[in-house]
Amino acid sequence: MSLTFLCITCYFKGGDFMRACKEAGNTVYLLTAKRTEGKAWPYESIDEIFYLEDDSNTLSNFENMIKGMAYVMRTRKIDRVVALDDFDVEKAATIREHFRIPGMGQTTARYFRDKLAMRVQARDAGIKVPVFSALFNDVEITDYLRASTPPWVIKPRAEASAAGIKKVYSFDEAWQTIHGLGEERHLFLIEQFKPGAVYHVDALTLGGKVIFHRSSEYLNTPFEVAHGGGIFRSVTVEFNSKDAKALKKMNEQVLKAFNMNYSASHTEVIKCHEDGEFYFLETASRVGGAHLAEMVEMSSGINLWKEWAKVENALAKGESYSLPDVRDDYSGIIISLARQQWPDSAPFNDPEIVWRMNEEYHVGLIVQSTTRARVLELMEKYAQMIRHDYHASAPAQDKPTH
User: Fold this and answer.
1) Is the full-model pTM beyond 0.70?
2) Is 395 a domain residue?
3) Is residue 118 part of a domain?
4) First to last CA, the chain
């Protein structure tokens, strides 16, 4: 049985998903932003591409998108809609709701896009979250600031990564920043900043159960990288450790509380330095960005993009799905902006290197080893080399650029 999948991503990603979807005998359509035209999409696996001139998540743009899709669907049937990026979760949910296509609807999609909805849902399910407040009501905000201690972070409810986050250190600075948001302030939230180690759990869920997960630790937090011009690094967590077990449990609690039925997911958690407790930060119903999927694959042998596509295909066709054998190696990724247009990575020559980044003004590597200690040793060695010979930094962006 052949079905038609509409893949939505306004950023250049998800090629392996579309290839796997096509290999399963399906028709694959891609809805993407006009600015991605000409990118190296897997054209051999895409039957037709539709472009959005405006990819913003506004009601007026959603109306235009629905009109465009209604025209498309006069002559083409669409069986499933899959959002391959955070920014397209709402688009996919809107299309599903309007055209009554199975899958995650707008209410559940909110838990995976809206950081305020995430925190309320997690808190109500008994999951630890940093103390937070919406920015709707002046009295409630004032009460919140007086009842909690700085520093605080003011962050957009619907941006990915560390984009648009502002850190404030006093009552007056918090209010000054909130007032500076003007009529946009309802699109933000404020929460207590908890210094600690930040982890991510990359997973696959099927039938409401997590069937695969891999926990990793950022050696530099995304906030530090975005706002301090740091070098992005992440390493697999020690298998069967206390932290690994706690992260597995929290990830399962979050996905259950958020009514996740099936998908790839990327969940971020912080282990607070002050009390040693784990706090939920955010989650997303997609594969992690910044080449974390490649890092997970080098550790586990599981290609999250491909297996996610196989899960979607099996469910749509009423077929069974079985996860391939999972390998337990350690891997680590390091990525930095580079001063050189095409940096020469030849000086990085250890045998543990299993992947090299090929992107203008970037240097990046993934290493694989049977021990975490060796991965950490290489991450530190490469960070020193990159700082000395390659590293460049750019101002933090209010919105992600890839």
Assistant:
1) yes
2) no
3) no
4) 35
